[in-house]
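As described in the Methods, two query proteins were run sequentially through the folding procedure within a single session, without resetting any intermediate state between them. The first query and its resulting structure tokens are shown here.
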Amino acid sequence: MTYPPLGAQLIVFEKQTDLERNTAAALDAVRAAGFEAIECGAAFHAADPAAFKAMLDQRGLRVAGLHGALALDLDLAFKLLDVYGARDLCISGLGNWGTCNSDVYLKDVEQLNALARQCAAHGVYTHYHNHAYEFAPTSEGPSGMDLIMGDLDYTVADLCVDVAWVHIGGHDPAMFLRKYADHIGYVHLKDYIGDRHWVPLGQGRMPFDSVMKALPALKKARWVVYEQDTSERPAAEACAISRQYLAKTYGY
């Protein structure tokens, strides 16, 4: 199977270290695990992006994308993306992180569309990253995700599908990927047990066999990124386990 390019989100290191101070060690771990790209926050190393780019170059790593919220400093994000040679920006948090008010969702989607138009003019791809709360119904009936997908301007934006949050939201992630394949430009792979207890890929309850079979059909997907919000294991170990799982199980 042919999969999109693969990266790792640095968030797995954030609860275990001062990531800005210890970036080199985190990058070494990501590279040792076998990843060739990273995703990071939209203001990460904003004080000296050239130094961060040099650290990446020394290790043969690229930036897959930046991740932020609607309120991010877009000019700063453009500056960082240009320095890193990256073209992808993931946005999350529409609907004020869980409102049941449809008007809030629609206002946020309008704002996201405006942001995405600015990104498109700068040559940047905008992807909306879901969590589970968007799949809950609003007081008016439709779910937040229904409202987002109904009003998103797909000429300038698409989805960053987090498969674990889709699963937690009560949906089959592989079916979701197949159904909306034409509107997916980025994917987050994540695994969990219990009540949102994050674990390395292949260690939890995610139906990865069906998810991985759905990935090659995502012709517009620019990146697939391993993401683990927290880890009981050392982050470097979690990265290595996740990368080995993808390689040994799926040849990825």
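Immediately afterward, the second query was submitted; its sequence and tokens are:
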Amino acid sequence: MIRNILALLLIAVMIFAFTGCSTNEDLVDISVVDELEEQLDYEKTQVSSLNEEVEKLNNSVASLEAEINEKEATIDALEEDIVTLNSSQNPNQLVSEAFNVMELIANQDAAGLNNKVSPTEGVRFSPYQYVDENNHIVFHQNNEIPSMFTDTTNYVWGEYDGTGDDISATFADYYNEFVYDEDYLNPEVVGINTVVSGGNTINNIEDVYPNAEYVEFYFEGFDPQFGGMDWRSLTLVFEEVNGTYYLIGIVHGSWTI
């Protein structure tokens, strides 16, 4: 009997010892998992912080690149201005005369313009930058110029871009659409013997007027949604004779189809 009791006690002790070992191992395993999870959370926090730093650096790089592009555009514009000024025989006189003539145009001063127009060639009006020297209307000093704003005659000035319809209008109507349709007396850019506008119309001013000088009064655009396709310009073409600049061409510029 005593032997049986001792045997049962021994078995009970062994079972308790085995159970206690398994519980300790489980506790150890749970502790290790908790530590690993804490380390994982810490590493995630570090990664998130680093990503924020990277985003800030990317924004700084983008800002610097935009500033560099702006500076490069300024440099290009200044270089163009230098080339333009160097290419003109007398840029100060030419630009001064161009602004004087533009002021007369803005004020619709026909008498003043009459004195600026070439007495031998007159002044040709071109609605687009392709100058048709055979068909575009030419007004002459002392003839059409003095009365052009009050003249009720309908002239055919060329053809509308896109439709090919005749541009049939009095000078006053043509003036509003193809001469002073913007405030060219206060342009955004002035080009001196260089074309600053850009479009898909062939600009043949230098071909038609090979010995002339010209000044382009240019606006880059007005509505941002058009991306610059609503640009406008007016180019005044001059012939220099014995130190005097005479107006021989007024060329309107705009985006064409």
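The chain has two domains: 1-87, 90-254. We note this only descriptively and draw no conclusion about the first query from it.
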